[in-house]
Amino acid sequence: MEQFRCLGVTLTNQNSIHEEIKSRSKSGNGCYHSLQNPLSSSFLSTNINIKIFRTLILPVVLYGCKVSSLTLREEHRLRVFENRVLRTIFRLKRDEVTGEWIIIRNGEVYKLYSSPNIILVIKSRRMRWAGHVERLWEMRDAYKVLVGRPEGRNHLETGAN
After folding, report:
1. Is 155 domain-assigned?
2. How many folded domains does the chain comprise?
3. Would you say 54 and 121 are in contact if contact means Cβ atoms under 8 Å apart?
4. Which residue has the higher pLDDT, 142 or 161?
5. DSSP code of 148?
6. Full domain range(s) for residue 64
7. Is residue 55 included in any domain, yes or no?
8. Nearest-5° angle of CA 74, CA 109, CA 36?
């Protein structure tokens, strides 16, 4: 098989995470668009909107992230998604004197957010998962894969496909 879905995650024979990131971003966009009105509303405080983002949108995007590695391209896609949501939460503002729109730079958005960005969250979850697997019993499959001692038939050695 070239690819299959297992527990909501798309796995490929090339260990490519590109399609999974697209799928997660698409699901996250759907969640974001369904919550766009409350997130951009001035009736809810910024803190409540951040909690909505962290509890409803971020888990959708980060599902299954701890078992995959990211390329720079995929990291960029995830940061773009996060920036778009955070810019909605922190709302563009007009200068009171000139009436012009104030441009919020990415660095300023992350200062306002004051939480780790999405890439740091993924890396910390990956490290936590690796620590969990490392403490597993040596006969468990996840432990064997982590330490590089898989057992069973190796198709490359036998010439079978």
Report:
1. no
2. 1
3. no
4. 142
5. T
6. 9-116
7. yes
8. 75
Is residue 21, in this structure, part of any structural domain at all?
yes
- DSSP assigned state of 104: P
Q: Which two tokens stand for residue 142?
A: 């996840």
Between 121 and 24, the more confident residue is: 121
What percent of the chain has pLDDT above 70? Answer: 73
* Count of beta carbons in the 10 Å neighbourhood of residue 21: 22
Nearest one of 129, 148, 42 to 89, comparing CA atoms: 42
Check the CA dihedral 32-38-42-44 and report its sign.
negative
Amino acid at 3: Q
**Tokens standing for 134?**
């490392």
Whether residue 103 is contained in a domain is answered as yes
Rounded Cα distance, 106 and 56, in Å: 22
The percent helix, strand, coil of the chain (3-state, each to 5) is 60, 5, 30
Structure tokens at 121: 């969250």
Q: Is the pLDDT of residue 35 over 80?
A: yes
What's the Cα-to-Cα distance from 65 to each of 42, 44, 62, 86, 133, rounded to whole Å?
Answer: 33, 30, 5, 20, 15
Q: Which pLDDT score, from 0 to 100, does residue 58 have?
A: 92
